[in-house]
Design a protein that fits this description.
five-stranded antiparallel beta sheet, seven-stranded antiparallel beta sheet, 19 helices
């Protein structure tokens, strides 16, 4: 077969490549193809016509048209393939409409340059992969198709006046469409005249005047052009082909074929015989689209998205890469004052943290406070441990080991605690004691407005991945008599939850971190790539460059994906997972009413998307990361 399949890997509806043409045999594609010579010269054979395309020239090749290329000079050819079905949902006759471009100086002009502008925009979008790239590609492709329909319709080339007479244009389009669909049948001028309610003689005159050929000449031209694919793509005999394309006898087929192609059909077949289609590398050398940007930039002037792109980072990650070490995430959380766990609300928060993040240790403060009613009897000789035991039971039930800070605790209290709870838990509870608080604690009463914002996301990741000192978050904001309040929700507390139990962005940052695997494959600023028994995990986040945290645009090529994966994406940024930003959008109220508290609690969280990742040597994906944002990809084996 001489048909070359278009893969449409870049986009479901279009495929664009930049080639240096060497030499190709005759072949065809089931796509509408737009050619733009950016440099040099090539020879193009289109059906039986030969053209020289020079720098700046364009050409339109309709679906299934035979074509071949040959290098005349070093060249760069931009080739855009458009899937035939794209335009059909907007214009039902799209599949039956042919296009023609006039490369003479008279034919070049505004419409010609606008066609180049649409091609330039598509190249730019494919190369830059900006936000809303798919929408921009669809918009430009649709506008390009309407531009072709309104300015490069093949009938306009035959008769420009048809632009001004839509009824006549529609009539001759119907006739051409009918002949293209029924050329293999016995079709007569009288039959078509009857369908169009016209006198046959008048219709014959109009066809000759409009098409430049008589009715029979036009019909037989269609037939012989259709026959070339059968000559090259099948082993059928000349007689079989003649009958299949509508000729009543082979001699009529031979006559019209020789008249059109100036050779016998067998000679045509023999001259283009080949054992197999050459490889792409033999026919052309491909270049990255990026290398064409300088040549096409003049046609991007006025395009609103041109120049708005951030720098595109390109990252290659190999699934077969060996581990460079074990990933150790933070394992300790500051639970805060023990009295917090006398309230169901705070117990619920810890349950959520352990379900989503699962810390190993929890530091608890003021466990030996009188607020827990530990002293009973005259002279405080009897110590009541009921509430303390309830709190410890709860912490242990969450598969967490308590770490008890002993600040200024009386000796007799510690002795009583040790004697009592070593029996209760059948272990040496002195292992739970902390004489000093570890470094790296984000204290719940430590006030910094950044603790409420998305600034915490890169801060947490940098701390955890840097490993210079621990990063120990606090469970919940804590209000004491020193706290200065301007509202009931945010005051810069260091907790993962606000004092009224709303999840901060920092909580979700830890939640994403908890889903990383145990083996580190790549770790660098703004990226950690891990592996687990379930699959692979990629965490990307914005980070400081030259003391400034900026947005990132990242193109990831995932190498050696040797099986199919289910892909889950978590997006965390100001719009997805930041209670503080949503509170500001509400007007930063002093008090959040019950309705809005419920809405914030239920609907403000990272955005989650699902994809199917098909086995491939290179699996590409693009992501944009907002300032102080992060994105996590989970590739789980299917």
């Amino acid at each position: 077969m001489r048909e070359v399949e278009v893969k449409y890997k870049q986009n479901p509806w279009l495929d664009m490549h930049l080639y240096q043409i060497k030499k190709t045999p005759l072949y065809w594609k089931n796509s509408l193809e737009i050619l733009w010579v950016l440099k040099g010269e090539i020879k193009l054979v289109l059906d039986n016509e030969e053209f020289t395309l020079k720098e700046g020239d364009m050409e339109l090749i309709n679906p299934m048209e035979l074509r071949s290329f040959e290098k005349i000079k070093d060249n760069r050819l931009l080739m855009l393939d458009i899937k035939p079905g794209f335009f059909a949902s907007y214009y039902p006759d799209a599949g039956k409409t042919l296009y023609y471009i006039d490369n003479t100086e008279e034919g070049k002009g505004g419409k010609y340059n606008l066609l180049k502008s649409y091609c330039a925009r598509i190249l730019y979008e494919l190369n830059e992969q900006m936000e809303e790239c798919d929408e921009a590609l669809s918009k430009n492709l649709l506008e390009l198709q309407y531009h072709l329909l309104n300015n490069f319709h093949y009938l306009y080339y035959e008769q420009e006046w048809l632009k001004e007479d839509p009824d006549e244009l529609e009539r001759f389009h119907r006739i051409a469409k009918y002949l293209s669909a029924n050329y293999m049948e016995k079709v007569s001028l009288s039959e078509i005249a009857e369908k169009e309610f016209l006198n046959p003689s008048y219709l014959s005159y109009k066809i000759k005047d409009t098409m430049g050929l008589s009715f029979n000449e036009y019909l037989n031209q269609i037939r012989v052009e259709k026959s070339t694919k059968l000559l090259l793509g099948t082993d059928k005999s000349i007689s079989e082909i003649a009958g299949e394309v509508g000729f009543s006898h082979p001699r009529y087929y031979l006559k019209h074929f020789i008249n059109h192609y100036h050779m016998h059909p067998q000679e045509y077949r023999d001259s283009h015989t080949m054992e197999e289609m050459p490889s792409l590398e033999e026919m052309a050398e491909e270049y990255p689209l990026e290398s064409a940007l300088d040549e096409i930039k003049e046609f991007l002037t006025g395009y609103s998205r041109y120049g708005s792109a951030l720098y595109l980072e390109k990252i290659r990650l190999d699934l077969n890469k060996e581990s460079i070490g074990e990933f150790t995430r933070g394992d300790t959380i500051l639970l805060g004052d023990a009295t917090l766990f006398l309230e169901d609300e705070n117990m619920h928060l810890l349950r959520e943290v352990q379900r989503e993040i699962n810390f190993k240790y929890g530091i608890i403060l003021n466990l030996f406070s009188q607020d827990l009613d530990i002293f009973r009897g005259r002279g405080h000789r009897f110590i009541n441990w009921t509430r303390v035991e309830n709190i410890l039971d709860f912490i242990l039930s969450q598969k967490m080991e308590p770490k008890i800070y002993l600040e200024n605790t009386a000796k007799n209290v510690l002795e009583s605690f040790t004697e009592n709870f070593s029996k209760v838990y059948d272990r040496d509870v002195t292992e739970w004691f902390l004489k000093e608080l570890p470094k790296g604690i984000v204290h719940p009463t430590q006030e910094d407005e950044n603790f409420d914002k998305t600034d915490m996301i890169p801060w947490i990741y940098d701390k955890v991945l840097d490993k210079k000192e621990p990063c120990i978050p606090s469970l919940v904001d804590y209000i004491d008599k020193e706290t200065e309040l301007s509202n009931d929700t945010f005051f810069g507390g260091g907790g993962m939850f606000t004092s009224n139990a709303l999840n901060k962005a920092g909580f979700y940052a830890w939640k994403l971190l908890a889903q990383l695997g145990d083996e580190v494959l790549v770790k660098e600023p703004g990226l950690i790539f891990t592996r687990s028994n379930d699959g692979y995990q990629i965490l990307l986040y914005s980070y400081k460059k030259k003391d400034k945290t900026v947005e990132r645009r990242v193109m990831v090529n995932l190498l050696n994906m040797e099986r199919d994966y289910s892909v889950t994406r978590f997006l965390l940024d100001a719009q997805h997972g930041s209670i503080y930003d949503k509170w500001e959008e509400l007007g930063a109220p002093e008090r959040i009413d019950t309705l809005h508290w419920t809405l914030l609690d239920e609907y403000v969280h990272p955005k989650v998307d699902f994809y199917y990742g098909k086995k491939s040597m290179v699996y590409p994906f693009f992501t944009k990361i907002q300032k102080n944002g992060a994105v996590l990809y989970l590739f789980n084996e299917i």
